[in-house]
Amino acid sequence: MEESKTNRPLIEIEPAAESSGTATVRVTGEVDISSSKQLREALETSLGEACRELALDLSNVRFMDSSGLHALVETTQGFRRAGGVVSIHKPSPAVLRLLEITGLVRCFQVVK
After folding, report:
1. Taking the model in full, what pTM does it have?
2. Does the first or last residue of the chain, that is N or C, have fewer Cβ atoms within 10 Å of its Cβ?
3. What kind and span of H or E run contains 110?
4. According to the 3-state scheme, what is the secondary structure of 37-70?
5. Alpha-carbon distance 6 to 72, whole Å?
6. Could you tell me which CATH number the domain at 11-111 has?
7. In whole angstroms, what is the distance from residue 7 CA to residue 93 CA?
8. Could you report how far apart the first and last alpha carbons of the chain are, in Å?
9. Ranges of each domain in the chain
10. d(CA 93, CA 38)
11. CA torsion 95→98→100→103, rounded to 10°?
């Protein structure tokens, strides 16, 4: 787990819980250049062969920069092309604003 200068973790990711083809990933903290690799790796691990839907709970993400957004887009792009569905559940205000500003809110199924 990446840590800040105050030794607090920047990001916490709960392992995917799979249920009938849906993998749920819960992310907490700050997703930036120092933690985006961890997010990417967790998402790649979650996208198994039986997975048809990826549900991202981003309700506890306090901050996300462009590297975090890039990790989301890059990791899920091929999955969506193969017919998979990516949904973002209860995005925090910071994440929702970033998705709206970039126009990427249309690329994900957002569940408020």
Report:
1. 0.84
2. C
3. strand 109-111
4. HHHHHHHHHHCCCCCCEEEEEEEEEEEECHHHHH
5. 26
6. 3.30.750.24
7. 25
8. 28
9. 11-111
10. 22
11. -130
